[in-house]
Amino acid sequence: MTDSAFLTALELVIGLDADLLDIVGLSLKISLTAVAIAALLAFPLGAALALFRFPGRAPLIVTLNALMGLPPVVAGLAVYLLLSRAGPLGSLGLLFTPTAMVVAQVILVLPILAALTRQKVEELHGEYAEQLASIGVSRRRRIPTLLWDARLSLITVVLAGFGRASAEVGAVMIVGGNIDGVTRVMTTAIVLETSKGNLPLALGLGIVLLTLVGVINALAHLLGEATRRQLG
Amino acid sequence: MTHLTLSVPATTPRLNFDRVSYASRGQTLLGPLSLNLEGHRRTLIMGPNGAGKSLLMRLAHGLLQPTSGRLVWEGAAPRQAMVFQRPVLLRRSALANLEYALAVQRVPRRQRRERAREALARFGLEALARRPARVLSGGEQQRLALARAWLLSPEVLFLDEPTSALDPAAIRAVEAAIGDFHRQGVRIVMTSHDLHQARRLADEVILLHHGRLVEQSPAATFFDAPVTAEGHAFVHGELLD
Amino acid sequence: MTRYQASTPASALLSGALLVAGLAVCATSAQAEDEPPFITLASTTSTQNSGLFDAIIPSFTEDSGIDVRVVAVGTGQAFEIARRGDADSLLVHDTAGEEAFVADGYATERADVMYNDFVLIGPAEDPAGIRDADSAAEALNLIADNASPFASRGDDSGTNRAELRLWESAGVEPGGDWYRELGSGMGATLNTAAGMGAYVMSDRATWVAFDNRQDLELLFEGDEVLFNQYGSLKLSPERHPELKHDLADQWHDWLLSEAGQQAIGDFEVKGQQLFFPNADGE
């Protein structure tokens, strides 16, 4: 069966199956959008957590770390209840749309990005703190400075977030509904094919997904290495 | 004040240490000590490893707060800059590192490029403007750190073992730069464990041992006729215990 | 931050990612503007997994210009989605539940659309010997007496509800090691049953379309208590005025129309008809 799964995956890719392309495109669109939005929020948040001491900071960090393990299905359920017609944001009519899936993934990815950003920025600040204090850089001014100088590590952080977003199924299944051609992504398609007992196709889709994530990681790695060599 | 040359201030700033001590985790690492840093001099802080040289400097520069005692600048606190043993440069080009320091001082954007280039030229780095600061050699990095300090227009420049990791040519360049600062009216406070360097640069020497002030003397006195027994031993290259 | 620093590959990557994301958002919203009208239909995994919707929705869309977006879940969850106003239309198979849904005021009308039947599946060697049973009740009693593993959906779906009613009428209270509630959809339950050599009750459509049978075989069928009726419901405009009732009514009416019934009857998997239209109450 594994053989036929690989063959199926190969056929899917070589044949450039139109449905597959739609599904892959939607998966990428949703996960990249979610990661981009989460990064815009998480970078400053993580950096602020690294730089400022305030009451409630420690509980906040512990909470963020704990939320890194938030089960996707719980995030999905929360977004479902929020966006459902009977819920507080029901009038927006967003349930069972790609937007709802982006919202759910932002919730999943944000704690990871924020917690890891805090860690990376704190490490870098350990190195920079005296110099920045000597030049007279305010805490607030240090946020963009450190984020920019930590950009190499932040690529890894973003990839971790992208990995979580593109691999999860629990949340997008609930809030997207796995509607053919509208909200069907790689992972929900895999669940569907599995439940049809079409295991080679399911595994084939899995191989395609894995390859895709692998290619994105490899590209990021190469770019990161090139930059590292250049920046020393 | 112009940004090209630094005017000699009418009165040189004076920093008074009044029974200052610094402790960490219940252990006193420095002091209590009382001394004055005054005059338009080049002061070398000397002593064996662990004597508290770097601590004294960080307290003076305001990076650390004393556990007890008081540090007081007479008059307004002067503009200061500090050059560290291992320069901390941002992960950007040499030019961008300098422009950053100017931006922090709220220098208008259109002036930054020109002033940064002038500083690079002054320290012989103009050819390296676009190079990432982190791939420069140790000596180049330290000169860039000096160029950055220059752009802060300091009245007092602190240097913590600025040449300890450098080869002779680079040491010469850094010492020349320090002389340049001094001629432009900048008060120099510097740590070193190198007696030869101290002989070349010092107007005044402060000798620390086990966190205590042993001796503060004019350089000529210190090297020719130290007041204390420890000073005598140190100048003659003996180990202090 | 100054401009020329953005020349490093890392920053190019970061800005590239942001750009792609931005374009993606734009593309998504642009798409939303010229979208054809659509309704959201909450339905069951059995109809979805068999491929019925893929076969019949295109002809409805061609006739009406309305797209139907299917959210396929267990019947229990489908009711819940409709109750919360998250679907425009409902097609499920739990007649008693559907009538209660109308009685509670969530739907104004229910109609028979089609039926198929449940079948009992099990390992080919049939340790409980249900192959020769005279009735579904006898078959279930044999499984219980033999304590042969039985995989139950356990997910409050229409199939699960039908299964529990069958145990009740057979006079057996299922429980113990041999009775395994999986809390999964039909396909997942079949996968699990195949893995552990368990008996399982499935709707015929999912079974026929199911590809991972391994050692499983159809062992018992034909008792009229295994009849599986599907109904379509018109949801209440009073409860949820914001739903697309006009469009949903067109779908409901089409299912019951000659064209809709014909499309359902024409749907075959592996040469076998899976759903039998009965809107006229035959």
TrEMBL record, chain A:
InterPro entries: ABC_perm_TupB-like, MetI-like, MetI-like_sf. It is a multi-pass membrane protein. It comes from the Bacteria. GO terms for cellular component: plasma membrane. Coiled coil: none annotated. Its main location: membrane. PROSITE patterns: ABC_TM1. The chain crosses the membrane at residues 30-52, 64-83, 95-116, 146-163, 201-223. Keywords: Membrane, Transmembrane, Transmembrane helix. Gene3D superfamilies: MetI-like (1.10.3720.10). One of its GO terms (biological process) is transmembrane transport. This is ABC transporter permease. It comes from Halomonas sp. RT37.
TrEMBL record, chain B:
GO terms for cellular component: plasma membrane. Keywords: ATP-binding, Cell membrane, Membrane, Nucleotide-binding, Transport. SUPFAM superfamilies: P-loop containing nucleoside triphosphate hydrolases. Pfam families: ABC_tran. Its main location: membrane. Residues 15-235 form the ABC transporter domain. GO terms for molecular function: ATP binding; ATP hydrolysis activity. Signal peptide: none annotated. It is a peripheral membrane protein. It is found in: Cell inner membrane. InterPro entries: AAA+_ATPase (IPR003593), ABC_transporter-like_ATP-bd (IPR003439), ABC_transporter-like_CS (IPR017871), MetN_ABC_transporter-like (IPR050086), P-loop_NTPase (IPR027417). PROSITE patterns: ABC_TRANSPORTER_1, ABC_TRANSPORTER_2. PANTHER family: AMINO ACID IMPORT ATP-BINDING PROTEIN, GLUTAMATE_ASPARTATE IMPORT ATP-BINDING PROTEIN GLTL. Belongs to the ABC transporter superfamily. This is ATP-binding cassette domain-containing protein.
From TrEMBL, chain C:
Residues 1-32 form the signal peptide. Keywords: Signal. Pfam families: PBP_like_2. Residues 40-258 form the PBP domain. It comes from the Bacteria. InterPro entries: ABC-Tungstate_binding, PBP_domain. This is Sulfate transporter. It comes from Halomonas litopenaei.
